Amino acid sequence: MATIAAVDVKKLRDQTGAGMMECKAALTEANGDFEEATTILRKRGLATAAKKAGRATSEGLIGNRVTADHSSGILVEVNCESDFVARTDDFKDLIRDVLDAIEKAGDGATEAWLKDPNGPIQQRVAASIGKLGENMAVPRFVRYAGGGYVGQYIHMGGKIGVQVEFAPVAASVASRDEFATAAKEVAMQIAAASPVPAEYVSRAAVPAEVLERERAIYRGQVEGSGKPANVIEKIVEGKLGAFYAQVVLVDQLSVMPGREKMTVGGLLVEASKQLGAPLTVTRFVRLRVGEPGA
After folding, report:
1. DSSP string spanning 162-185?
2. Distance between CA 81 and CA 154 in Å, rounded?
C-alpha cells in the first residue's frame, strides 16, 4: 500500500474541494493514484465543490427547529443558486442534516466551527454540491438555549425565519393557549413589520451612540428655523419617538388584523393580564434569505 504524504492530500483537496480526511481516504483506496482518487471522490459527491465555489448563492431557505419544551431553538440559513433546487427533497435533507449537526454540537456550534472546511457543515454542504450541481453555502445560524421560552415563525414559505425568546415562565403558563397566541403574534410581528423590521427589544436596548446620532440628525433638520432651543429639543424628542416606533419592538404598532392601533408592548401587557404572569421578550432574531447580517 502506498504511503500517502500530507502534501498529496492537500493537493487533492485543492483540486476537488473535498475534506482532508476524505482526500486521504480516497488516495489510500486508489493507492496514491490522483485520477482514481478524484473519481472516487466524484462518485461520493465530494469533488465538485471547489469548481462551483465562486457562483452566487442568492436563493435558499431558512431552516428551523425548536425543542418540544421550547427551551432551545435554532434558525439556519442555507443557500443555493436557484429556487428550483431550494424546493427539492435533497436540499431539504441538507437543511435537516445541518440542523442535526448544530443541535449535536450544542455550545460548540460557533462561527469558526461553522466555517471549518473539515467540519461537519462544510463537508455535508460539499456532498450536496456534488449531488445537486449548484454552489451552496451555510452563511449563518442562530441558536438560543437555556434562557427561557423560545418561539419561532417561518414566513414566505421559508424565505424569512424569526426566533424570539421570552423570559422564563412556569410550565402551567407556557402550556396555555393565550401564551401560544401571544408568542406567535410577536414572532409574526417581527417577520412582517414593514418597511423597517424591529432591531431592538426595548428603548433601553438602543445603544447610546445610535440615539446621539439620531438626535444630531434631527437637530440638523431644524437648525436655522429660528425656534427657541427648548422648542427645538421638543421637536427632536418627538422625532426620536417616531424613530423608536420603527426600530423598537415593543413600540411598534401591531400588524395583527383588528389590532393595528395597539403597540406590541400593549399586546404583551394584555397577554400578561390574561395569563396572570409577566410576558417579556428578552431577545429575537429575524433571518431573511440573502440578507446580510445575523
Report:
1. EEEEE----HHHHTSHHHHHHHHH
2. 21
CA distance 21 to 198: 44
Q: Which has the closest alpha carbon to 124: 54, 204, 177, 49?
A: 49
Residue type, 107: D
Question: Which domains does the chain possess?
Answer: 6-47 (1.10.8.10), 55-146 (3.30.479.20), 148-206+248-294 (3.30.479.20)
Look at residues 207, 211, 202 and name the one whose alpha carbon lies nearest to residue 265: 202
pLDDT in tens, 82-104: 999 999 999 999 999 999 999 99
In the three-class reduction of DSSP (H, G, I as helix; E, B as strand; rest coil), residue 64 is classed as strand
109, 143 contact by CB (below 8 A): yes
Cα–Cα distance, 76 to 98 (Å, whole number): 8
Q: Is pTM beyond 0.85 here?
A: no
Q: Do 18 and 41 touch, CB atoms closer than 8 A?
A: yes
